[in-house]
Amino acid sequence: MRTGAQPEILTMGQRNTLKIFGTIERHSARFLYHFRAVFNAETYIVYLERILQCYFPQKVYMIQDNTSYHKDRDSWGWFADHRRHIEVYKLPAYSAQFNTRERIWYHTRLLGTHNRYFVSQEELRVVLTSKFRSIQKKTVSGYGLFASISIIIVSLYL
């Protein structure tokens, strides 16, 4: 393709997305993620329970954005019931610069999904899993993705 030419990407004319929950650990840049069929308070709570299992008996301090299921009554009820194990803080509204998920998603799109056609969701899932695993293997200095993080754990959705 010549420089400046618009790329032509095949498409089926439908939006075929995957829902992914994830967290990033502040000190080690450990990246945990989980594919789900939908984003809602119920699936978010299931994901939170997985996080607690990964870190038990340590207490988790989580900073999350303002997605609707983060603010749901059921989610906050769950946080209240588990406050011995998890403490949650909200990012200010419209503060993408503080949300680490933006860097991960940028990296994933740039090196994995940008200007590519995926025949199936499974093919997309394989590519995303591969990119996420490469992120998990890199150190903070290796990628620079997390160089300016000043938080402990960030909730992520893609």
Automatic annotation (TrEMBL):
GO terms for molecular function: nucleic acid binding. The chain crosses the membrane at residues 140-157. InterPro entries: RNaseH_sf, Tc1-like_DDE_dom. Residues 2-125 form the Tc1-like transposase DDE domain. Keywords: Membrane, Transmembrane, Transmembrane helix. This is Tc1-like transposase DDE domain-containing protein.
